[in-house]
Design goal:
With about 575 residues, the protein is of the alpha+beta class. Among the domains are: about 160 residues, no CATH class; about 140 residues, PH-domain like (Roll), CATH 2.30.29.30. Helix content is about 60%, strand content about 5%. A seven-stranded antiparallel sheet has the order 6-5-4-3-9-8-7. Strands 1-2 form a two-stranded antiparallel sheet. Helix 6 crosses helix 9, helix 7 packs antiparallel against helix 11 and helix 11 crosses helix 12. It is extended, with a radius of gyration of 49 Å.
């Protein structure tokens, strides 16, 4: 029975695979004790040996315990041996496959490199042959004498070898630099756009602010130096600059200041604490970045960053549009001054020597920076009348201002064309006419002063001619109809007027008129604290109300608040000036 088991188990394995001792890739440590190089025995011989081993064991079957123990030991050894043979053969097979794959991949890459080198060698040989051929053609042909033919051929061969070595040396020496001047098509790299992230947006704004800080500090120091913030520092700077300008050393002075600044930056980078500034720097508190933000905090963060970006882009656009309009003769009287100044500078540069011209420019720049600008900053009225660069820059319009001007001009033309008829004699019903500007102020219910029962002189300010859409929240009332009202808010010179959209024609019961002098407190208000942002409401307190009234859901809340608060301040200032006891 044991013989049959051995034949079934190892029938296919020993015939299909090579003997482990014949494997060339077996290591010294693998089965060194068991594997010995022997001539391969046949299957019949092995079976005979096994039968011979089994017979003595069959003789020893007298003891029942010894037979079962020997049988178990033999089956365990055969199983371990079979598993070991299978594992070694699989390892040998996998090593062969891996070696074949490595050889194939290396061969392909080596073939490609060899082809490239071969093509390059052929090109170089062709270039060298062409160069030699052109030189031989250019050189005068000499007919060698008959007896000296072998010597001439030897000399030519020697010349060719010398030329080849010289060209090879030149190529080895300067070939790398020549390769750099080869024209190649420009590679277009497409930058990957990052997805929108509130954290990354805030970090970019902070980086922009930190990067722009040296420029702002430099401009602030120049402004402090010009306005004599530190008298001693400005006086020393003025004396040194005028002495340098008198001797014609302005350019070397600026170069020396640049070198000095770089030297100070080097010392600061090495760890030195050097702080030189006319204006003391104010360190802004750095807020630690929050890792986990709520939805409302993210929304508020995006709104704040968007507002800062909007203001920054608006200022940059205003500067660029003013420069463009200056050179495009949008305001001819302003561009004419620049035109005349450029002609004077051109004629002066042609007639005057450069040394004298530089002296004049340097002295004028020092007097303008240290004296004239200080006088103009101290006296704004003089600046508005005599400071030509300031007048030109402030009066230059932007494209937005030009658009607004064209719209107002078109509206005036329409009004003038309509007023040539019967409108010039009498205004239509429900419309009040401004005698100064010929403008008509009205609401949807009728004339403005009639709707709110105000004098005819009370008209909406220019900021709110059409009013601000909002809802009035009167927290003193209990009923829902009186608690919230939708309508339009106006501000005049002395009153704050709210026209309810639910009031009937000709009725002013639901409208609200608040005298600006009666207001005790005005501030921005957030109706719902759950919503993100700073709110869209304005809170106004008066002595007649227990709780402040709120004008909420206002789209242009900041604009309305500025207009109302400015007019309220003017009225309060005028009232205190007339009656200081109050």
């Amino acid at each position: 029975m044991l013989k049959r088991l051995d034949r079934i188990r190892f029938r296919g394995r020993r015939d299909e695979f090579l003997d482990l001792a014949e494997s060339p890739n077996t290591s010294d440590t693998e089965c060194s004790e068991e594997i010995v190089i022997k001539p391969r025995a046949s299957v019949r011989e092995t079976e005979e040996v096994r039968e011979a081993e089994v017979e003595p064991q069959g003789d020893a079957q007298a003891g029942p315990g010894s037979f079962s123990a020997a049988l178990d030991d033999r089956t365990d050894l055969n199983e371990v041996k079979g598993h070991l043979e299978i594992a070694l053969l699989e390892k040998h097979y996998l090593q062969e496959e891996l070696r074949k794959l490595k050889e194939e991949s290396n061969v392909d890459s080596l073939k490609q490199e060899l082809e490239k080198e071969r093509c390059r060698r052929i090109e170089l040989e062709q270039k060298i042959n062409d160069a030699l051929r052109s030189r031989l053609e250019d050189s005068p042909s000499q007919t060698p004498k008959a007896p000296s033919a072998p010597s001439a051929a030897g000399s030519d061969k020697q010349k060719e070898t010398l030329v080849d070595t010289l060209l090879k040396w030149l190529y080895d020496r300067f070939g790398v630099y020549i390769e750099d001047f080869r024209f190649q098509p420009e590679e277009t790299t497409v930058e990957t756009e990052e997805p929108l992230s509130a954290k990354r947006l805030t970090e970019n704004m902070r980086r922009l602010k930190r990067g722009f800080r040296p420029v702002t500090n430099f401009m602030r120091n120049l402004s402090a130096l010009s306005s004599w913030y530190s008298i001693y520092t400005s006086a020393i700077a003025f004396i040194v600059y005028m002495y340098v300008a008198w001797n014609g050393w302005v350019i070397p002075m600026f170069l020396f200041l640049a070198i000095l600044r770089l030297s100070l930056n080097y010392l600061i980078a090495k760890g030195w604490r050097i702080q030189w500034s006319i204006v003391p720097e104010v360190s802004e508190p750095v807020e630690p970045p929050k890792e986990d933000l709520t939805v409302s905090e993210k929304f508020q963060l995006v709104l704040d960053v968007a507002q800062k970006a909007q203001n920054l882009f608006g200022r940059m656009a205003n500067i660029l549009e003013k420069i463009k309009n200056l050179f495009m003769w949008v305001q001819p009287e302003l561009t004419q001054k620049l035109y005349v100044g450029l002609w004077l500078a051109f004629i002066s540069s042609c007639l005057l020597p450069y040394k004298l011209l530089g002296f004049i420019i340097g002295v004028y720049a020092g007097i303008k920076f240290f004296i004239i600008d200080f006088i103009f900053k101290s006296c704004p009225k003089l600046r508005q009348r005599y400071d030509t660069p300031y007048i030109i820059w402030t009066n230059l319009p932007t494209d937005l201002q030009l658009k607004e001007r064209s719209n107002t001009m078109l509206g005036r033309r329409v009004i003038a064309a309509g007023g040539r008829g019967s409108l010039t004699a009498a205004a239509p019903v429900g419309v009040s006419r401004d005698e100064d500007g010929g403008r008509y102020y009205s609401t949807k219910r009728g004339a403005f002063h009639e709707v709110f029962n105000l004098p005819e002189s009370e008209r909406p300010l220019t900021v709110c001619e059409t009013g601000w859409r909002c809802c009035l929240i009167n927290r003193d009332r209990k009923t829902p109809t009186d608690y919230i009202r939708n309508g339009v808010l106006y501000v005049t010179e002395n009153y704050l007027c709210f026209e309810s959209s639910s009031s009937r024609s000709g009725s002013s019961k639901r409208n609200k008129v608040i005298k600006l002098l009666d207001i005790t407190d005005i501030q921005k208000y957030k109706v719902l604290s759950v919503l993100p942002g700073s709110g869209m409401g304005i809170s106004i307190a008066t002595p007649s109300t227990q709780k402040p009234m709120v004008f909420g859901a206002m789209m242009h809340r900041d604009e309305a608040f500025e207009a109302i608060y400015t007019q309220y301040t003017k009225i309060i200032t005028k009232a205190t000036a007339i009656n200081p006891e109050t």
